[in-house]
Amino acid sequence: MFKTVLEYTGEHRKTTYAAVAAMLAGMIMQVLPFWFIYRIIRPLLMRQTVTTGYVIFNIAAIAICLSLYAVLYMWGLSLSHNAAYNTLKNLRISLQGKLENLPLGIIQEKGVGAVKKMFIDDVETIELPLAHAIPEGIANITIPVLVFAGMFAADWRLALLALASLPLGMLAMGIMFKAGTSKMDDYYKSAQKMNKTIVEYINGMEVVKVFNRDGESYKRYENDIKNYRDFTLAWYRTCWPWMAIYYSIVPCVALFVLPVGSYFVLQGYSTLPDLALVLCMSFGVSAPLLKVMNFFPTMVRINYTVNNLEQMMSEPPVQQSDASFTGKDYGIQFEDVRFAYKEAEVLHRINLIIPEGSLTALVGESGSGKSTLAKLLVHFYDVTGGAVKIGGQDIQHMSLEALNNQISYVAQEQFLFNISLLENIRLGKPDATDEEVMAAAEKAQCGEFLARLEKGIHTMAGDGGKQLSGGERQRISLARAILKNAPIVVLDEATAFMDPENEEKMNDAIAEVIRGKTVIVIAHRLHSIVNADQICVLDAGNLIDAGTHDELLSTCPAYQKLWRAAESSAQWKVSTEEMKETQREVESV
Ligand SMILES: Nc1ncnc2c1ncn2[C@@H]1O[C@H](COP(=O)(O)OP(=O)(O)OP(=O)(O)O)[C@@H](O)[C@H]1O
């Protein structure tokens, strides 16, 4: 575990080593005073003359050692914390890089709460070994080892007595370690579950408020919190008795030295000054040994966390290469594409050619696989079989960055960062000038609602874009796509949140985004795609038909069914409007 943690330090490893050196020097200064105490006691025991000057000299030496200890310890801590927090920074950055390249499914499976826990809490756990356990632990172990070696040189019998309490303490610690590890898994899983539930509960607050808090989600919330309490206490309870035993035994290095050592002196096996020396040194090593012991209870947790982080770091990323985009054009080919989120396949052998500059619509019942097909094109996931190509180049044979540069993807629910709307749009082209951003916003029909906002385009979007309505968020994301001006555009239900009036504006914005591009549109409202160059009908993960609107209307029963449903919903919309109109008339009378 320590090796792995040290690997995380990267360029800051030297600082960690410097911290270890400072702590070691500090520890020597912490133990040395006991040597000077011995120097005062020894002549007294030998009934030799002790001058005041001699005593003052030794007391001064003790004071200097303790002062040096304070300085070196502080210096060591400052170095170790410097290395630790720089390592945490590196770790969080590399986790973020890792996350960006992982298939989306892995993140969704873990849940936002668990991923947040990993980024914040788990990474923070590494601080303890780096800032304390490694530098202080090494110093707190090395010095007692050296002191015990000195004791052996003075009198091996007394040295063995000083060591005698350690195996008992170690045994207690070993048992605690084993027992703690067995409960750790439950504790950790319950912590992850609680995190996940809390995040979900907060995200779903609107539903919680509308329905009542006695509902299923609140019960789950309450349960998970209680479970966390129970598992944590169970883990602690397993550790506490053993912790108490070793905490009481280990510092008592003099436990056997004083009674048995006195007997040895009386029997003439050892001398009184040697007993005094070993006793002084025993008291000297108690503090470092106790400090080292303090780290052990947390080692189980750190070990678990490091394994967890390592597991995340070793998750296979989506397959990509360093190559740039070399496709011959911006046509798209799905070749025998199969895909499963988990075990069950949701797309079966899809073969589809989308010519450059054409508009292709994907239609089908809900759950038929339209969005999944689009997500495979933007490489959120690796295909399970077959290949997705652009201009003949497999998207797995180019970098994610190269692919991203070719595609603007406007999803159903667009996330906006809590930065200004201007900056949110600028994400589409980071080097765009303010004027370019504003022109894109205008083309995306954002002008009217931006004018209503006090700070206009400089308004903050709010957490996740919550400041704006669904339709406004979509227009901001369309502005982003207009600014990006990528040759391929994927629109997933881009008008999902639109009322008829806004839909018209949105269609103008869409027309702006797709002009001259290779376009894939996923639409439930079939009326908006009747002029598409090709309409692909998906059914339960199969591409069952493709053609123009007229062709499909005369030959494809599945499309006819979808069209009939679209027509009746349009009529329903008209009659709702008529009803509202009638109501207005009645009210005015
Ligand atoms: N993250 C996921 N994990 C597991 N299964 C998923 C996931 N996302 C979608 N599915 C499943 O994959 C199938 C295809 O879903 P997809 O979202 O592609 O359908 P869709 O045609 O776009 O539906 P809609 O029109 O309702 O958006 C569905 O059975 C769905 O339950």
Describe this entry's structure for a reader.
The protein has 589 residues and is α/β, with parallel strands linked by helices. The protein folds into two domains: 2-313, Up-down Bundle (ABC transporter transmembrane region fold), CATH 1.20.1560; 332-563, P-loop containing nucleotide triphosphate hydrolases (Rossmann fold), CATH 3.40.50. Helices cover 66% and strands 10% of the residues. A six-stranded mixed sheet has the order 6-7-8-3-9-10, sandwiched between helices. A four-stranded antiparallel sheet has the order 2-1-4-5, covered by helices on one side. Helix 2 runs antiparallel to helix 12, helix 8 packs parallel to helix 12 and helix 11 runs antiparallel to helix 12 (272-313). The N and C termini lie far apart (81 Å). Bound molecules: adenosine-5'-triphosphate (ATP). Adenosine-5'-triphosphate (ATP) is lined by residues 105, 108, 341, 346, 364, 366-372. One of its GO terms (molecular function) is ABC-type transporter activity.
Rounded mean pLDDT is: 82
Overall geometry: elongated
Work out the helicity level.
55-70%
Separation of the first and last Cα atoms: 81 Å
Number of beta-strand segments: 10
CATH fold category name of the largest domain = ABC transporter transmembrane region fold
Please summarize the sheet with the most strands.
6 strands, mixed
Q: Which CATH class of the largest domain is shown?
A: Mainly Alpha
CATH architecture of the largest domain: Up-down Bundle
Which class best fits the helix and strand makeup? Answer: alpha/beta
Percent strand equals 5-15%
What's the number of helices? 21
Spatial ordering of strands, largest sheet: 6-7-8-3-9-10
